[in-house]
Specification:
Layout: E1 3-4, E2 7-8, H1 9-12, H2 14-21, E3 22-25, H3 37-42, H4 49-55, H5 60-63, H6 72-85, E4 90-93, H7 99-113, E5 118-121
Parallel strand pairs: 3-4, 4-5
Antiparallel strand pairs: 1-2
Length: 123
């Protein structure tokens, strides 16, 4: 069996484990293109979206703009914010991303959360 936090993940099902314990950051961002950054983050958010987006360097006017009007770097930060806002203890990130940016963003928000997050770099 596979245990997570001392519990067999099969007991509640893999879908439950994925939904409640794992957050993903994709190289291609996987943002909903007709939504704003705030709306994209709210899709997974257990935390308020705006403070996380602002902490990652997006301005107030940018977080209410359509994501297609943001630069690639800003879209990347929205994808990171979405993973952080889920409050999942495990974040899986695509290796082709700038890991320096991901670790910096996760660390800066994590200091606010005061909660441990496991960083996994899958190859």
């Amino acid at each position: 069996s596979v245990l997570f936090d001392g519990e067999d993940i099969a007991a509640k099902g893999l879908e439950h484990h994925r939904r409640n314990h794992i957050s993903l950051i994709f190289q291609s961002y996987n943002l909903i293109d007709y939504m704003t950054p705030v709306e994209n983050v709210r899709l997974t958010a257990k935390l308020d979206a705006a403070p996380i987006l602002e902490r990652l360097g997006l301005e107030q006017d940018e977080i209410t703009r359509n994501v297609l009007k943001l630069s690639g770097g800003q879209q990347q930060r929205v994808a990171i914010a979405r993973a952080l806002a889920s409050d999942a203890p495990v974040i899986l990130a695509d290796v082709k991303w700038s890991m320096v940016l991901i670790v910096y963003c996760v660390h800066s928000v994590q200091k606010k959360r005061k909660k441990g997050t496991l960083y996994t770099n899958r190859t």
